[in-house]
Amino acid sequence: MESITKPRSDLGVRTLSGIAMMLVATVAILFGGWLFRIFVILVAVGLLREWFRLAWQLSSDGVGRLLWAAGGIVYIGVATANLVALREISEMYLVLTVIGIVIATDTGAYFAGRTFGGPKIAPKISPSKTWSGLAGGMLAAAILASAVGSHFEAFAIWQPLIGAGLAVVAQAGDFFESWMKRRAGVKDSGSLIPGHGGLLDRADGLLAVLFAVAILLAVVHFDAGVWRLS
């Protein structure tokens, strides 16, 4: 009788690599300055490498690949440049808030989706994403944005609205990267992070939010912790 070998769980590897990522990112954010800039540059290079790899699979002609590559340079370039800008204009306040909103979105979506289930948003692109999960992510992000906003200034209705809106953006970024991988016929964007796949797999939602915040900053002026229309 043949023995059946169960596949080894990668939970330990995922946990260790996740902790390592958090430690490196935390140190870079805390120190700021050139250390943070170098960290972001290295991450941007890694993200672009994976994007180009997907772009090569997404199109079979040179023009299509060039357009995908150019789009990636703009998308990733604006998002990562904005990350550095946020760190410099507000020290750690905005950087941690943006990252916190993405984490809150993922956490709220996970627990709401597991608890309530229900219809899928786009099962052919991401089979696990549900409308209840999206609602849970929006609620969690809205609560976090309200809590942070109330700490630095008086509560305003735009705070939860922006939090919920950025949660939708984060989920859209996740869907977009999933769509790219499915169209390219790959499971992960890369294999740089043990147990997690590539950098794009981990930063898809954050990239979308940073890009959206960059657009928001183009029409809204930030001064001493207060948002004002330009």
Automatic annotation (TrEMBL):
Reactions catalysed: a 1,2-diacyl-sn-glycero-3-phosphate + CTP + H(+) = a CDP-1,2-diacyl-sn-glycerol + diphosphate
Enzymatic class: transferase
Superkingdom of origin: Bacteria
Pfam families recorded: CTP_transf_1
Pathway it works in: Phospholipid metabolism; CDP-diacylglycerol biosynthesis; CDP-diacylglycerol from sn-glycerol 3-phosphate: step 3/3; Lipid metabolism
Subcellular localization: Cell membrane
Membrane topology: Multi-pass membrane protein
Bilayer-spanning residue ranges: 20-45, 66-86, 92-111, 131-149, 155-173, 206-227
Swiss-Prot/TrEMBL keywords: Cell membrane, Lipid biosynthesis, Lipid metabolism, Membrane, Nucleotidyltransferase, Phospholipid biosynthesis, Phospholipid metabolism, Transferase, Transmembrane, Transmembrane helix
EC number: 2.7.7.41
GO MF annotations, alphabetized: nucleotidyltransferase activity
Chief localization: membrane
Family recorded in the similarity comment: Belongs to the CDS family.
Name assigned to this protein: Phosphatidate cytidylyltransferase
Organism: Sphingorhabdus buctiana
